[in-house]
Amino acid sequence: MKCIVTGGAGFIGGHMVDALLEAGHEVTVLDNLSTGRLENLAHHKEKAGLRFAQADITELEAIRPLFNGMDWVFHLAALADIVPSIVDPVGYYRSNVLGTMHVLECARLSGVRRFIYAASSSCYGIAGIYPTPESGPAAPEYPYALTKHLGEQTALHWNRVYKLPLISLRLFNVYGPRSRTSGAYGAVFGVFLAQKLAGKPFTVVGDGTQTRDFVFVTDVARAFLAAAGSSVNGEIFNVGSGKPQSVNRLVELLGGPVTHLPKRPGEPDITHAEVSRIRAALGWEAQVSFEQGVRVMLDNIDYWRSAAVWSPEGIAGATRDWFRYLGGSK
């Protein structure tokens, strides 16, 4: 197939490119390199099946020609992370909602055969049901979650109105090699690995008993491939391991001292994907165990030597707006 991966120079996008090229498909990467890195694609530089286009999904006319003749679209381009979305909601709407609509429209006008949208489990907010099914109500707690959910609703609307063949995958806590090392304070793995390299204590929020449904990035890429290769249409599927792990368990596997930070508003104590629907419909389930995944991260820890090393004071400054808005203070 001829495929286009938006955000293909990013963390998940780069692994998606790996999986597609390994399966023998032709790939065009569309990325504005605001957070993506060409280094994530460098190991493919000699491959004839890969093309790179630096462009921004918020510029409709600039990206439209790239979709001509494409069979499959994997839409992973987005602004991520909680903190910057609170500071810059306008930028997040522009990228994650308007940009998504542009990608959908380009796909529709080009007559693509499959469109796979990378949605976010953050749409569930602080869920009332665990494991959380796809039918769980949407209750986004911050602008990133809201804009990803609005992007998903836009995608489903294009499916209903314009018959664009589409599946939405709600990703839970994705981790793995080549995750971002720069930018705003973000995912726990990157924070902890940089702290371990620097000999600093792990900054654990709350008492560390909170659990997250961690899913390894190569398993996520497999889910996208399974979705694209299926005949399923207009459906939403959770993509998680279905086996939540505590932050304390992560600390135990990584090994090192701990310092504790205040619990944050708007963060769930649990994320836990109900994965029976994707198993039944697409035959997909996570294959990499948490212990195996952490071992891979430790084997590749040098990647995080250039990452920011967050201190409790730095985190407090970075999350000030988080507490200000989500905590209800004035």
Q: How many helices in DSSP terms? A: 12
Q: Which CATH top level class of the largest domain fits? A: Alpha Beta
Strand content: 15-25%
Structural Rg = 19 Å
Question: Count the strands?
Answer: 13
Quickly give the CATH architecture of the largest domain: 3-Layer(aba) Sandwich
Q: Kindly report the oligomeric state of this protein.
A: single chain
Full CATH superfamily name of the largest domain: NAD(P)-binding Rossmann-like Domain
Biggest sheet statistics? 7 strands, parallel
Envelope shape: globular
Overall number of domains: 2
Structural class call reads alpha/beta
Mean pLDDT across all residues, rounded? Answer: 95
Please describe what this structure looks like.
It is a single chain. This protein is of the alpha/beta class and 330 residues long. It has two domains: 2-174 and 214-239, Rossmann fold, CATH 3.40.50; 176-212 and 243-268 and 287-326, UDP-galactose 4-epimerase, domain 1 (Alpha-Beta Complex), CATH 3.90.25. Helix content is 38%, strand content 17%. α4 (89-110) packs parallel to α5. The longest helix has 22 residues, at 89-110. The N and C termini lie far apart (53 Å).
Which SSEs are present, and which pair or pack?
Layout: E1 2-6, H1 11-22, E2 26-31, E3 50-54, H2 60-63, E4 72-75, H3 82-87, H4 89-110, E5 114-120, H5 143-162, E6 166-171, E7 173-175, H6 188-197, E8 202-205, E9 211-212, E10 214-216, H7 217-228, E11 235-239, E12 245-246, H8 247-254, E13 258-261, H9 276-282, H10 290-299, H11 312-318, H12 320-326
Helix pairs in contact: 1-7, 4-5
